[in-house]
Specification:
four-stranded antiparallel β-sheet; alpha+beta; Neuraminidase; eight-stranded mixed β-sheet; Rossmann fold; about 725 residues; single chain
């Protein structure tokens, strides 16, 4: 199988937004043999200043200084950009969100961005009213979660609330009404043995004394969710998100839907006469494994929703054309299939007419949520293509998918003015944390707006990523990147670390990864790979590892290491490390058990035993990719489990796991650590409290990076150097 080529993207070097100031060097004039005290002091001061200006390696502690940006919202008239800024409060071990504002003139920034919301509150998700006079945002202080508004046009003033608005506002096109989604408690949510659904309504057993019982009785499988410590109530007892509407000046909200499932993805009809939204009819069916949701239309006056796009698969992200005559949406028939962009014609009442058309049938990549150009002639979406993420568009009439933005980078949070004159987004690449950029609607005249990370970037030396590609035995081209060490160019050989992403149906992107630069700064080559199974290379590439996780993709990593060794002769093949989280942790375990390539490993949130994971995870994995449940495919589950080969492991391994990980439960890390301990393999087990599948707390996230760095420094730089001098490490190779 070969991978179809990507759309023609301009991969010419971009002008780097954080280009370093050029450093000039000059020869000192001849100095007299005897310095005066003043001259000596001046020389010492200059030397100290020169040392202070030297770039250093990025450290894990620098993660406290990295500023993240998102939630970009261009005002309807294109004169302002609102965006969310996330900064770490290292003293309080938390992240704070604020809204900033950038003024524009003719699509170009005027002055610097300014803080727009109260810095003592967490504020995010800015949304403009149709006339641009009001900006709304989600605001929180402790448990107080509210939606607030600020008058942007004169006379301005303090943030305020609109009575009756109890969720993120969805403005009507004329600005006269505000819709929102709000969780509604079900009447049956109070059970016989307590409130909140602690006892399933169909439970057979009843307690001896309901006033003394403070546990849970469950009769369904999905009673936990990663990242949520409390057990989930029975599906029939959970609050359901329902559609409400209230006048823009405030008042008593009217509940428009009362459905047994959650309402999602609400979109006003352009004439304000109704709503399009999605509902998943199988959301509470724990034995339904394929994606599923339907698009419905509901008139403003209420009544029964009308089906617009339904049937097999998932129909999501509805977007109505400006004239109200067409509806675009995404359709994924089954878990195995390509996501397609479809469009269907609508009648004057908002109902579907005729059969939908597929606009991306000749495009192998997966489109993101659609939006319309102001003239209704084009449908836009973001998509990942070979590690990059860009904005694309396709004509309503059908035709070629066209790239609007270009370059080896990742764009996110794309927003347009109402006339498409201005668009803004966050752009990131391997040596640049994301910053807000503004451009014309066609992608030209791009200008960087923000510079939150510039001070840190001036202090540190970052290494650019170099693309690497190779072919595996069936002819498939596989792609990866290499970040050289900070001390590249010295005569010594360098160790290399292979990093593996999660998923596996995910991908490494051309974006900034803090850990990679930390490892590069410590003297390591870093190789990161998008093996078969990754996204952004088409559905055939994504599904190539079906029923063969580990067995198929193992080749991609081994040959990727070989390709890197050939490209970079100063990589020491005797000092290779491997690391990854989730699927990356699974493959870290797999590769150390199935090959002898690696001298050290760090495995995070890993999988060691598919049989146990299938019974304990909060997800439906691995039922579909392994063609059935563990008791139906017992031999396959065992053949694809790293624990089946653990006796072959000799690489010292650091095992990292969150104590509250429900996706790859703690027992997976415990099994791997316990087996390695019994085998006498050097290992440590780091358990992070209050942590789920990802380690989110700033202190713990930085700690995880530092322990990863130290582990590889110890085994690949310190112990590796000893082994290279002939003392060996006791391994049989």
């Amino acid at each position: 199988m070969s991978v179809p080529s990507a759309p023609s993207l301009d991969r010419s070097p971009q002008v780097h937004p954080n280009e370093r100031r050029a450093r000039s060097s000059s020869r000192h004039p001849h100095l007299p043999r005897v310095f005066s005290v003043v001259a000596l002091a001046l020389a010492l001061a200059l030397a100290t200043a020169d040392l202070a200006s030297q770039e250093r390696a990025l450290s894990p502690e620098d993660s406290y200084r990295i500023v993240s940006l998102g939630g970009v919202a261009v005002s309807p008239d294109g004169d302002r950009i609102a965006f969310t800024v996330t900064q770490v409060d290292a003293e309080e071990n938390r992240r704070n969100n604020t809204i900033w504002m950038q003024e524009l003139e003719d699509g170009q920034p005027v002055g610097d961005p300014v803080l727009f919301t109260d810095p003592t509150r967490n504020s995010s998700s800015p949304t403009w009213s149709p006339d641009g006079s009001l900006l709304s945002f989600n605001s929180s202080r402790g448990d107080d979660q509210t939606t607030r508004f600020i008058r942007v046009a004169p006379p301005g003033g303090e943030a305020f609330r609109i009575d009756g608005v109890e969720g993120t506002p969805i403005w009507s096109p004329d600005g006269e009404q505000i819709a929102f989604l709000k969780d509604v408690e079900r009447e049956e949510a109070v059970d016989e043995e307590g409130e909140g659904g602690s006892v399933a309504p169909n439970a057979i057993t009843r307690g001896l004394d309901s006033t003394r019982f403070d546990g849970h009785v469950v009769t369904h499988r999905r009673y936990k969710r990663d990242g949520q410590v409390d057990w989930l109530p029975h599906p029939e007892l959970r609050p359901q998100s329902q559609l409400h509407v209230v006048p823009a000046e405030g008042g008593t909200p009217q509940q428009l839907t009362d459905l047994p499932r959650n309402v999602r993805n609400v979109e006003w009809a352009p004439d304000g006469g109704g709503f399009y939204f999605t509902v998943d009819p199988y959301e509470d069916d724990e034995l339904h494994f394929h994606p599923s949701s339907d698009v419905h239309f509901l008139p403003l006056e209420g009544g029964e929703p009308v089906s617009i796009a339904a049937g097999d698969g998932s129909h999501t992200s509805p977007a109505v054309s400006p004239d109200g005559r067409h509806l675009a949406y995404l359709h994924t028939p089954t878990w195995f299939d390509q996501t397609e962009l479809k469009v269907v014609e609508l009648d004057s009442g908002g109902r579907a007419v005729g059969e939908p058309r597929v606009l991306t049938s000749d495009w192998i990549y997966s489109p993101g949520a659609p939006s319309w150009s102001s003239d209704g002639e084009w449908i836009r979406f973001s998509a990942g293509v070979h590690g990059n993420t860009h904005l694309f568009q396709v004509p309503l009439s059908g035709g070629e998918v066209v790239a609007v933005t270009q370059g080896d980078r990742v764009l996110s949070a794309v927003s347009h003015s109402s006339d498409d004159r201005v668009m803004a987004y966050v752009s990131s690449d391997p040596v640049s944390p994301g910053e807000v950029h503004v451009a014309r609607g066609d992608g030209s005249s791009e200008v960087r707006v923000s510079s939150f990370n510039d001070d840190l970037l001036e202090e540190v030396a970052l290494q650019s990523a170099e693309r690497l590609s190779w072919q595996v035995s069936d002819g498939t081209e596989v792609e990866g990147w290499v970040i050289p060490p900070m001390n590249q160019g010295t005569e010594e050989a360098h160790p290399m670390i292979l990093s593996i992403h999660g998923g596996p149906h995910s991908a490494y992107r051309n974006t900034f990864v803090h850990l990679f630069q930390v490892l590069s700064g410590s003297g390591f080559y870093v190789l990161y790979v998008n093996p078969r199974g990754s996204t952004t290379y088409g559905n055939d590439f994504k599904q190539a590892i079906h029923a063969g996780w580990g067995q198929v993709d193992e080749e991609d990593f081994v040959t990727g290491v070989e390709a890197a060794l050939e490209r970079y002769p100063d990589v020491d093949p005797e000092r290779l490390g491997v690391t990854g989280g989730s699927y990356g942790g699974y493959m870290t375990n797999w590769l150390t058990a199935r090959t002898d390539l690696f001298r050290a490993a760090v495995t995070r949130a890993s999988i060691s035993n598919w049989e146990s994971l299938a019974k304990n995870t909060d997800s439906n994995l691995p039922h579909l990719p392994f063609e059935g449940a563990s008791f139906e495919q017992r031999e396959l589950y065992r053949a694809l489990s790293p624990i089946s080969y653990v006796e072959n492991v000799t690489a010292p391994t650091l095992v990292i796991h969150g104590e509250n990980d429900y996706r790859t439960p703690l027992g997976e890390g415990e099994q791997w650590y316990g087996a390695l301990q019994k085998l006498g393999v050097p290992t440590e087990f780091v358990l992070y409290p209050r942590s789920a599948h990802g380690i989110r707390e700033p202190w713990l996230a930085a700690d995880s990076q530092e322990r990863t760095r130290q582990w590889f420094v110890h085994w690949l730089l310190e112990e590796g150097a000893v082994a290279a001098e002939g003392e060996g490490d006791g391994r049989e190779r």
